[in-house]
Design goal:
The chain has 307 residues and is of the alpha+beta class. The chain is 60% helix and 21% strand.
Length: 307
Amino acid sequence: MEAAIIVLILIGVLVVYVGLAVKIIQQYQQGLVERFGRYRKTLDPGLHLIVPFVEKIRKIDMREQVVDVQPQEVITKDNVVVTVDAVVYYQATDPVKLSYNVANFILAATKLAQTNLRNVIGDMDLDQALTSRETINTELREILDEATDVWGTRVVRVEIQRIDPPADVTQAMHRQMKAERDRRANVTEAEGEKRAAILKAEGVKQSRILDAEGQAEAIKEVADAEKYQKLTVAEGEGQAIERVFSAIHTGDPTPDLIAIQYLQALQGIADGKATKIYLPLETTAILGSIGAIGEVFADSQNDPAGS
């Protein structure tokens, strides 16, 4: 009976010992083995055995963590008080440094982020701070990453959630924005009216140019028609005269030739000075020849081509 009790006690002690000796490290963790309070080694994820009551394991979460930086008031370069809210994302890179180089990493990271956030925004004007969130995020991340390197962590990113100016400044910004939009609308409307006026003037100018060109073309056509008509008449008269003189120079004098020669002789006699001219008796026959010449000229005008 006593032997059975002893066996049960030994089995119980063995179970307790195994329970204390067997440790499981999760995939997202690393374990720091401490023997009598002194760091001994780092355990990777999996099943491990330690010496109970002599060694213990400190488990470190290696996943990305977030630190919520509480809203705080920050004074900008142009002396405007704004309320800033941010979050910091970090990840452990060295579990030994994270465990032994800083007592409370969350508190230390929060205070460090608040201090540097005041420094970064304090060097900016209000408008610059409101429009440069990416710049603030990048600059703050670089500062925190360098400062927390000795703590075995890496700052992945910093995000500015809100930058809230005072109520009166916000109202002034709304009025300024409205005035700027009104100005842009007026400028756009004026530019549209200007463009419309320019297009209208160009249309009137083009129309006048086309009218002037049409009138010039019409005048040219009329002038060409008159010139052609004059040339046609002159050609007909020339052909008629050519017929008369051709008949004269063939050596066959006709009454036409006599009439023409007679008229030329009268022109020479008168010479523009005589007031009286005496005609011989043959005037009647000569005048008949002149009538025949008139008929020739009339025929030439009716038939300019000389057909």
